[in-house]
Amino acid sequence: MARLPHLSSRLQGFGTTIFAEMSALAVQTGALNLGQGFPDSDGPVEVSEAAVEAIRGGQNQYPPGPGIASLREAVAEHQQRFWGMTLDPETEVLITAGATEALAAALLALCETGDEVIAFDPTYDSYAAGVAMAGARLRGVLLRPPAATASDAGSRITSEPFSFDPDELRRAFNPKTRLILVNTPHNPTGKVFTEAELDLIAELCVEHDVLAVTDEVYEHLVFDGRRHRLLAQRPGMAERTITVSSGGKTFSFTGWKVGWAVGPAPLVAAVRTAKQFLTYVNGAPFQPAIAAGLRLGDDYFERFRADLEAKRDLLTRQLAKAGFAVMVPEGTYFITTDIRPLGFDDGIEFCLQLPERAGVVAVPSAVFYQDQRDGLPLVRFCFAKADDFLLDAGQRLIDALTR
Ligand code: PMP
Ligand code: GLN
User: Fold this and answer.
1) Could you give the residue range(s) of every CATH 3.40.640.10 domain in the chain?
2) For domain 45-150+161-297, which CATH number applies: 3.30.70.1140, 1.20.120.530, 3.40.640.10, 2.40.50.100?
3) Are the CB atoms for 378 and 338 separated by under 8 Å?
């Protein structure tokens, strides 16, 4: 990537985010956008009405630094209701400007210059930048695609998950390791970490006295009867884990940017210190609205999950018909495909041409990898869209790629 003349050395190499780039391409070309992860319809009307009411009711000035009390309470209730985690909303819950700010604040608050941060590779794009801004170094542990699609595609659809080599994870821990970032359900691969995998991570964190920051923004999008598990609840982890999530995905209001970081009071206090000087506060009227969302009945959360699971299945079928090898995600709203059965091997080039070739935008998974070669033939599609839109996009891909 070209050097930007005024950019600090810490941030050289971080150009425009892939999401902005691909969404701009979608607008320019009029292609159907299955790139950037956002739903194409609004979330529950009770939640948007609560925001309107808050604006009309004058909740428009700075909220308290840690977030309004009713949202902190709602986050604590949510963690108790769904995950059985007990939190003190006064000291153990911090409201942030989306999960992105919570992650950045955690990295800035917890890392010394030169510390190492472990993360499973590929990573969500803000991790590498957050680690760089904190003056730390990212150490990736590779998530390998399921074997069936690794080289060729005898079968076009695999439900096997991405996996990592436990020894590679063990070797990643060293005296410089400060923390591990764990994203489950994982973007972009759709992997949901199992209890056994989280136990191994926990064991290593305890053995090496390492902290953990988790990113659980897709906590309610876990499919096929699987359960979302929290690293914070594995043995020895409660006192060393910051759990991050946000309302963007769960309530389909990704532009509101209301997130949170929860954990033991001393860790939350550290994150709050950094957070104060990033945004201080954000989204005053959206805070009570997300609180209303978190208090919706279980039926809302179940319907949301079931809807997205059906969309996953719909797009999986279309992508397989178009000739992609499809790795069915266990969670999130993204499908990873391998383009080699289509006769291509460079996902970046493929995605740049796809709007013209098929009228569809997707994201090359390579950009999420430390070394792009590790994910070069992989392409990610977002399925949080209306069924008609998915069918239309699928048909365009079938028409363009199977001729
Ligand atoms: N983490 C992951 C894994 C994501 O996919 C996203 C995108 N929504 C974020 C964090 C950012 O979340 P937010 O919009 O709440 O900042
Ligand atoms: N999380 C979304 C994705 O992975 C995008 C968020 C963003 O644009 N930063 O596509």
Assistant:
1) 45-150+161-297
2) 3.40.640.10
3) yes
Asked if 359 and 31 touch (Cβ cutoff 8 Å), the reply is: yes
Q: How far is CA 80 from CA 76, 164, 183, 224, 262, in A?
A: 6, 30, 20, 23, 12
Contact 122, 369 (CB under 8 A): yes
Domain with CATH 3.90.1150.10 in the chain: 9-43+299-401
Per-residue model confidence as pLDDT tens for the chain (403 residues)? 678 889 999 999 888 888 888 889 999 999 999 999 999 999 999 999 999 999 999 999 999 999 999 999 999 999 999 999 999 999 999 999 999 999 999 999 999 999 999 999 999 999 999 999 999 999 999 999 997 654 444 568 999 999 999 999 999 999 999 999 999 999 999 999 999 999 999 999 999 999 999 999 999 999 999 999 999 999 999 999 999 999 999 999 999 999 999 999 999 999 999 999 999 999 999 999 999 999 999 999 999 999 999 999 999 999 999 999 999 999 999 999 999 999 999 999 999 999 999 999 999 999 999 999 999 999 999 999 999 999 999 999 999 999 7
Ligand 1 neighbour 333 (Cβ under 6 A):
no
DSSP characters over 19-68: HHHHHHHHHHHT-EE-SS---SS---HHHHHHHHHHHHTT--SPPPTT--
Considering only CA atoms, which residue is closest to atom 2 of ligand 2?
Answer: 37
> What spacing in Å lies between the alpha carbon of 122 and ligand 2's midpoint?
14
Q: In what order do the strands lie in the sheet with 137-142?
A: 93-96, 259-262, 241-246, 211-215, 177-183, 116-121, 137-142
The ligand that comes nearest to the alpha carbon of residue 102 is 1
Top-level class of domain 9-43+299-401: alpha beta
Residue nearest to atom 7 of ligand 2 (CA): 19
Mutating to test ligand 1, I would choose from 246, 256, 258, 382 the residue with most ligand atoms within 8 A of its C-beta, which is 246
Does 187 sit in the ligand 1 pocket, CB within 6 Å?
A: yes
